[in-house]
Amino acid sequence: MRIDVLTLFPDVFNNLNSFSIIKKAIDSKKVELKTHNLRDYSDNSRKVDDYPYGGSPGMVIKIEPIDKCIEELKKKNIYDEIIYLTPDGDLLNQKTSNYFSTLNNIIIICGHYKGIDHRVRDHLITKEISIGEFVVSGGELPAAVLCDSIIRLLPGIIGDESSALSDTFQDNLVSAPIYTRPEVYKGLQVPKVLLSGNKKEIQKWNDEKSIERTKLLRPKLFDNE
How distant is the alpha carbon of residue 186 from its chain centre? Predict the structure, then answer.
């Protein structure tokens, strides 16, 4: 899988490339994560933003550097999706991450300032994604979240691939509680059924607790069924 990230701050992703699961994916050549500085696709001034028409406050990333960068990338690769990170996009969920993880090549655009020229959104991108109904300084951190949620799902990245199948939201449910050693800590006991070795009873307990916690913590997941 190849992920190309268009950003004003490529250094943000230098640390991401050396982090845990993502580093493993890159080292094993399961993923190519490439960053592209939009300033390299501007004029000699390297200016990528300008004042918005209509007199609104703030600055807006211009369409030209984004369009030029995408055109250059498309000369070398075919892209399944071109994604823009924006607070008013579709809320990222596990189903979306699962879908993205099946693709071959994607582009992720990180906005900044007040955002990007809306013509990019109308004509160049194919998906708009939000990591939550709040605003951060730029699209780099949301892009990092999106990349991690996708890359960890790729075959061979997680040691026990069945672990990803039991993640919260993977089956539209919150996962059951999990415990590890010691069996008792300051009088706090691990549920006995998990120590029984009875796989059928353990699975039944997990299913019941998963439904119970979903109803408590994310009742809207049942409303969407």
Answer: 38
What are the pLDDT digits (tens) for 57-98? Answer: 999 999 999 999 999 999 999 999 999 999 999 999 999 999
CATH topology of domain 166-223: Trp Operon Repressor; Chain A (1.10.1270)
Residue 16, pLDDT score: 79
Going from N- to C-terminal start, the domains of the chain cover 2-151, 166-223
Closest CA to 16 of 134, 117, 92, 31: 31
Task: Tell me, yes or no, if the pTM score tops 0.90.
Answer: no
CATH superfamily of 2-151: SPOUT methyltransferase, trefoil knot domain (3.40.1280.10)
pLDDT at residue 159 in the model: 60
Residue 164, token pair as written in the block: 């990803």
pLDDT at 225: 52
Q: Phi and psi for 83 in degrees, rounded to 5? A: -110, 135
Q: What angle do CA 197, 171, 161 make, to 5 degrees?
A: 60
Measured between alpha carbons, how far is residue 214 from residues 57, 163, 177, 218, 222 in Å? 42, 19, 11, 5, 8
Are 2-151 and 166-223 equal in CATH topology? no
